[in-house]
Amino acid sequence: MQLPVPGRHLPALPLSSTAEPDFELAKRHLPILMLDTAEPFAPLVAGYAVYREKAKSRSSKFRLYPRAAAIIEYALWYDWDIQHLYDLEHVWVHIDDTGQVVTVEASRHGARLPMRRPDQTLPVEGQRPLLYVEPGKHAHWADPAEMKRDAGVLVEAMCSAFAGDQGIHLSNRFSQQGQICASLFENRLARLKLKRLAFKPSWNFNNSLDAQPALQLVPWEILEDWIPQRFEALVSELPGTVPHLAAVFLDCGDTLVDERTEVKRPGTDIVITGDLIPGANAMISELKAAGHRLCLVADGPRETFENLLQLHDLWTSFDAHIISGDIGELKPSPKMFQAACAAMGLHENDRDRTVMVGNNLERDIVGANRFGLISIFLAWSTRRSHKPRLRDERPRLTIRQITELPGLLERIELSLPNSAVQGGRT
């Protein structure tokens, strides 16, 4: 047997089949899941386990107490929830000695709840539970009207404004055991992917999972072994499929450091101390937490920037430092930007997904525009002109406070074309 993996270029994961007697029992009572017609994600695999006496669940946090002869536990794997990568939902079917369903329970946002229709009947069709899946979030309900009434506003918000907020789900049994992990960069890409998939539920549940043959039924132990591999494959695909910025180039004077507060070593051009502009430290922390790669591109002696940035514990926040004192030319010289791209491992086709942020139209913005970067003008300081004289001095985008930058970068990434993934993790 082979379970699916994402992406046509990734190999399938071979998993051995099983002929254990509980397979037919699990197949007989496999839940019928009704999906919203706008639902972007369907479950791929149902991992089953059967309990005939009270026990700790093998795949969830709950203790199980059979109401009759046995409980069939179904762990339903989705690659994605609309708010995060990784989703494992559950359905528990209690059956008696004759094989009749006597109780149905299902997961809903971390809880295990009994499933009953408004008339208190069991949601069963034949011998199979029939459940409605919350759009995007995959919590279970016995009645779609009740779902929309009680959770509709919240669900619609999670599927739209709050899509992707959690990035990669790393509070689960596999992460706790050290079997799965992800970087800050990968977490950002997961968030961007899901924000691009934001949708409005139709609240029409005519789309039964039975019409989708991709769902496979396997013993829980097989699914348990496969999930970390699936997770790794999903994460590894992100850089090559999700449009994202390759790097962020930042100036220093009046972009990070307030030039009015700079103190130079007497008789030299070397700055020995200076204050950050309001919000600069928090902005850098936010960009690093989002996994952005930062490059300092600044004019002046190297010692100036070592003094200033080390003073504020920001020097090591940058992946590279391109300084005119080392290069021998000032911005807008293309040599500055060529050196920055080389230091960051960027190629020519990465330029249109790289930003340059600075306060100087004649140096930062002209240089970025001529080199093919996305130019962002920080109009915080009044020490230099805010009015472009030449076409090349017109910035692509403008912000007035440096704290606006993280939000702007996300909007840029969400507007990038699907082709903006060259080079993967650069």
Automatic annotation (TrEMBL):
GO molecular function: hydrolase activity
Cofactor or coenzyme needed: Mg(2+)
Top-level taxonomic group: Bacteria
InterPro entries per the UniProt record, alphabetical: HAD-like_hydrolase (IPR051400), HAD-like_sf (IPR036412), HAD-SF_hydro_IA (IPR006439), HAD_sf (IPR023214)
Keywords assigned: Hydrolase, Magnesium
Any Pfam family hit: Hydrolase
Identification of the protein by name: HAD family hydrolase
